[in-house]
Amino acid sequence: MSTILDLHTHSEASEDSRAPVEAYLNWIKLRQAERPVDGIVLTEHRQFNRDADYRRLEDKFGTLVLRASEVETTYGHMLVFGVNDDMVARFDFADVRLDAQTLIDEVARMGGIVVPCHPGRPNIGLYEHYQSRPPLENVVAVEALNGGSRKGEDERSAELIAKHGFAATGGSDSHLVSLIGLCATKFSAYIKTIDDLVRELKTGNYEPVDFRPRRKTVPHAVAMETR
Amino acid sequence: MAVNYDPALINKVFEITEPVEVKAEKIERYCAALGETNPIYTDAEAAKKGPYGEIVAPPSFAVTFRNGRHFFENVPRFGMRGFDAGKDVEFVAPIRPGDNVTLSSHVKEIYEKTGRTGTMVFVVIRSTLKNQNDQVLAHIDHRFMNRP
Questions:
Q1: Which candidate in A3, A209, B85, B122 could, as Cys together with A191 as Cys, close a disulfide (CB 3.0–4.6 Å)?
Q2: Alpha carbon of B111 to those of A30, B2, B3: distances in Å?
Q3: How many Å apart are CA B98 and CA B55, to the nearest integer?
Q4: Considering the entire predicted model, what is its pTM?
Q5: Mean pLDDT, range B128-139, rounded to an integer
Q6: Most B CBs within 10 Å: which of A70, A96, A121, A123, as the mutation test of the B interface?
Q7: Three-state secondary-structure class, residue B13
Q8: Is A216's pLDDT higher than 70?
């Protein structure tokens, strides 16, 4: 049994999002045919709310809700899965200059995993940093598909993945309700907990999936007429 | 602490405005400008039977109040460029004709983030609206982005 999870989402707990978790889950329910995700992972910016409890909503909508965090490092933004008290005590998640290598190694030691996100994005993606600095060690996976990517960003991510042999994930990076589930990650395993997710992310046994609608190509003759 | 600033700035009140009287005509003009037709804001007779017993201002009327002549003159700045990054408004109690409204403003939060275009420092100013009875009417969180 496989599981499809949107690994990168922001609810109204992030300062730049206005999306309630309940609205996300309702949208997924309404759009299940186009975006068949089984669950979402909330990756709020620079924070981890250990007290948030979404069990009632999970039961109401039958959709898994897990929690992680998106932090900012010397090599760009990274998703931290399996956040626990040790990590919160060790790192100031609000610090926008966390040392990337230390974060990757320490989070792994404490039982989690770090996945650099939107690596093809200017300024805050791994690709740009790799042009001028040594590559990081112990990176298992990076986010190949990001629902907020602009032209060329996912392509740069793909180039980086091909060059370094990373495993690849997908996430919507949704800040708006209607964008939830546009990109996700398909796991061959059945995932029900954050521990399941961390375990599977370490295996590399998954693939990014893209549910973004494709624009219809305009026939050349029509394009000529409408110039 | 991610961004370098004096922690004493947080919660420091830097501006309290003089009271501004809310006139019924101003509420009427505001409703006309918005196309607001709800009788609890526009019809004195109907409003008497409504939840507040009289006409009250629509909630968004709260954002019509301004700080001093110089908008947030004393706000801490980080760099020379930036823009208004929007506001969040929490409506607490209705604003009524005859209320004398004051705004008290303080720095609520300062934080840093990085994005496609570089580093940004956000300053969040909270303005609290109160009436003559010291009752809180609304909180307005103004968010300003600074480019260091």
A1: A3
A2: 36, 7, 6
A3: 11
A4: 0.88
A5: 97
A6: A96
A7: strand
A8: no
